[in-house]
Amino acid sequence: MINKIVLAYSGGLDTSVAIHWLKNTYKARIIAFCADLGQGEDLNAVKAKAIKTGASKVYVKDLREEFVKDYLFPMLRANAVYEGSYLLGTSIARPLIAKKQVEIAVRENAQFVAHGATGKGNDQVRFELTYYALKPDIQVIAPWREWPFDSRQSLIEYAGKHKIPVTATKEKSYSIDQNLFHISYEGGILEDPWQEPPSDMYTMAVPPEKAPDKPEYVTIAYEKGNPVTLNNKRMSPARLLGRLNAIAGGNGIGRVDIVENRYVGIKSRGVYETPGGTVLHAAHRALESIVLDREVMHLKESLILRYAELIYYGYWFSPERKVLQNLIDDIQRDVTGTVRVKLYKGSCSVVGRKSPYSLYNPELATFEKEAVYDQKDAEGFIKINALRLKLGALKKSSNR
To answer: Is 70 exceeded by the pLDDT of residue 311?
Structure first.
């Protein structure tokens, strides 16, 4: 018998319908959990909506600082990017939501948790891998894999029939996921990869052509790989990111339109806005360029793809992600310094970087006269490295 179900609740179409459907289908008490990750909504209104829709109890938790400090910053220290463009804003939020959901289930003595992710998407995997990693005996209900609805339009019709208030419409049926790091748009009119997204869809970044005609500069100071000040003002992680979002978004920074490979094997078109994250990613890489040893830097680069896949696929709490994180964080010990970034009409350009741990030596790098590096030494270096190439060429010649 199912007595209680803890539902990850956003107040959107899927989870609003899920409250009503779960309650009627399983005759259980629905405990809704809404995570405040900086999505900018009136969460008191979301809570009231959950109660009105049928939830017996609602938890709302402010997780903004924890989200940025313990999830976003570790990911940014790794320079994680999925398939060259996606900064993983939705992916990184799911393990935190699922973790808190499990904690509530334990507190409420509920053996069942539920989510509103579809059976085609990545989020179902991310939620459930986290559930099982943290509470192996938890039981999961995934409405999208059970209920009779086969489209978002059928959900809209169900909501209308049962007077469930939702904001999705047939004309604006794409799904939206927002947090302090980014906002994503998927589905609906975006499912045609040839179709340009509607201009009124974006919310975090202005159109680059409408951004100011004058460049804006920001300086970001880092300590051990983490941003700590913005324009010489020390801020908490969430406040720093929020302020940088406003500055970068005002200059049209951070829009991405991609077709990505979902973990379940489907290609999906996603449109993202990640203004502050785009700047932090560029700034961090610039600081690493003057601080890290070449081979250490190349080793880290070789691990970025794997690390990004682990987050995208939902393995945040896996042993392999933790091992990679330990290595990355050890590499970050000297990633301390300041970066200056120029923002202009959608472009984000690093124009300055300095660090007390910099390995950059102007005397070695100069094309002018210097007394540190004997250029004749390069001849032997080249000959030694060319030896195997010469031997290979000689072998081919002798076999002709």
So the answer is: yes
Catalytic residue chosen out of the listed positions 173, 175, 184, 268: 175
Catalytic residue among 10, 14, 64, 177: 14
Structure tokens belonging to residue 52: 């009105």
Q: Is 306 a catalytic residue?
A: no
Beta bridge partners of 31: 6, 57
CATH of domain 183-354: 3.90.1260.10
175 is catalytic: yes
Average pLDDT, the chain: 94
pTM of the shown model: 0.93
Q: Is 145 a catalytic residue?
A: no
Residue 213 designated active-site: no
- Catalytic-role residue among 77, 94, 255, 269: 94
Q: 299-303: list long-range contacts, CB under 8 Å, 24+ apart.
A: 300/78, 300/79, 300/328, 300/331, 303/78, 303/327, 303/328
Q: Which CATH architecture has domain 4-71+89-176?
A: 3-Layer(aba) Sandwich (3.40)
